[in-house]
Write a structure and sequence with these properties.
Order of helices and strands: EEHHHEEHEHEEE
Number of helices: 5
Bound molecules: zinc ion
Helix content: 25-40%
Strand content: 15-25%
Length: 251
Amino acid sequence: MDKIMKPSETPKCYCCEQIATTKDHVPAQCFFPEEKHLPSGCPDYRNNLITVPSCSEHNNPRSRDDEYAAVVIAINSKSDLALTMLKSKWVRALLRREGSLGKKIFSTARGAKAISRKNGIVIPYETLAVSYQIERIECVIESIARALYYRESGYQKKWVDSCIIKSLKFFNRDMGYAQDDCTLNQIEQAFIHGEKYQGLELVRKGSNPDVFYYQFFKSDDRNFIIRTVFYSDFTFLAFLKSGETTLNFVF
Ligand SMILES: [Zn+2]
């Protein structure tokens, strides 16, 4: 069994080589509902949030991107908590900042033809497509994944190699499912079913799993997968891979 590494005395910033003087929240606090946005009697979802050491320069540098990602994820989640966040917080924020966040998201809405597959049968249907700035969201998730890797290493190691972000929730631009969906689905299932097996150490981490949790999977010393789950149903898989680019993770 791995020995648990203790944080060094004065950890460095999760983004750069400066000595950390502050802590940054991972993911950003805007993902977590405040008390005022919730009906009375709800738990405190901002209790004991995950933080990483940070210099002042890198503390919360992407707040606009974080907000954008938080809104898009809340819109696309089916959980009650995400809907509450949307109604009590984000709709107001979207209206208040007219011309900014709201316009950016909804101005792209258009009618679209999509297909779904059921029992091998392709079913076309009409829908409303909103184009999101996926790269922007992936950037936020990549930053979270790198920060979580740093946390997992006891603030000893930063991931400097490639980090590929995948989500099963978003369509491709052509409204078809991505070709690697099948593989992603299998990995997703491996995480869900693998939780039962202690040897895999896929324990959920995060004090407020209704809002966010992650699982850290070490394939070998050079390959890791971090599964991040927002609002219980919105999953991203972050593939941290050294060397060659093919996906050949072994559970
Ligand atoms: Zn820094």
